[in-house]
Design a protein that fits this description.
Layout: E1 4-5, E2 7-10, H1 26-39, E3 43-47, H2 53-65, E4 70-74, H3 79-88, E5 95-102, H4 105-111, H5 116-131, E6 136-142, H6 149-162, E7 166-171, H7 178-191, E8 199-204, H8 211-220, E9 225-228, H9 242-251, E10 257-258, H10 266-277, E11 294-295, H11 298-306, E12 325-326, H12 334-343, H13 350-366, H14 372-386
Parallel strand pairs: 1-10, 2-3, 2-9, 3-4, 4-5, 5-6, 6-7, 7-8, 8-9, 11-12
Bound molecules: 3-methyl-2-oxobutanoic acid and zinc ion.
Length: about 375
Amino acid sequence: MNSEKIEIFDTTLRDGEQVPGCKLNTKQKLIIAESLDKLGIDVIEAGFPVSSPGDFESVSEISKLVKNTKVCGLTRANKKDIDVAAEALKFAKRPRIHTGIGTSDSHIQYKFNSTREDILERAADAVKYAKSYVEDVEFYAEDAGRTDNAFLARVCEEVIKAGATVLNIPDTTGYCLPEEYGEKIKYLKENVKGIEKAIISCHCHNDLGLATANSIAGVINGARQIECTINGLGERAGNTALEEVVMILKQHRDLNLHTDINSRMLNEMSVMVSDLMGMPVQPNKAIVGANAFAHSSGIHQDGVIKNRETYEIIDPEEVGVNASSIILTARSGRSALAYRFKHIGYDITKNELDFLYSEFLKVADQKKEVKNDDLYMIMETCSRKIG
Ligand code: KIV
Ligand code: ZN
């Protein structure tokens, strides 16, 4: 069976940049956008043009700069937002307007003090209006995760009739379980008339730590676009992490789904975004965390030294990390110590290793990690003792 492509929609510069403390200036956004283009992203959500003159400028400059990728601007479902987005996108080679409205009963009642019928009309009107500017219009049903499926299907049907090319089904509050989110996508595929004219997009937040799992459940059930951010940045607990979905689809070939992302750039992208936003990456973050390819317990180290695949499912080079690392701690064993001594130029015998290992443990019990400098010192002490 031929593998089907999943489009990657990056919203680091919009949803990611909404995070307190992550604000970027236009120059920094251009650096990131240029790299996203090289990374192989299908759509860059460059900002929310009506939100501020700075955001307008960024979307406009990114539109001029980017060569291959579609450039998208976010709007609410009103003419002013759409006019401003269309203006900001006017230089884009492949512009997309991303418009939408809340569809859950809670949004309809508390945010809009409105009715389902009114929301249906506003959704379709916004899409028609956006369509008067650009061919490619994505519609988001905000809080789709908590929206009744039958009503969500009606909304999707109306916006497809109005010309939407992409249907974004956000789990805005990160509430859904993977099975539930997958069922929602399946329900839409089976119950929305005209669904073959649009592609379904997953936009999952991470409030319960399920963003990646939900996005994968979405594509297994027929969605063909994932919205995500570098390092999983985004409102509150964040969005789906781009590096995670890309590597899941790469590792699980049985799913018959692929992306066009150059995974070898993932580590450098993560570092660049973290540096520019001043937002450190947690060391145990999947794929791009500092410990993602580091081994510190004796049993694991022994296995990895014998064959990397005993404890690693990804070759670090595939995500742009030079090599796995063996971290020496008080939990490390003799084979890891011998390996590191060899690495710094000492070929040691079994008897020497026994002696060095007992000295090593004394140092290791005093420190979080034993570095090369400590090893030189241990070697010197032992050489003196042995004579
Ligand atoms: O989380 C969400 O619902 C969003 C929409 C604006 C797409 O970010
Ligand atoms: Zn969002």
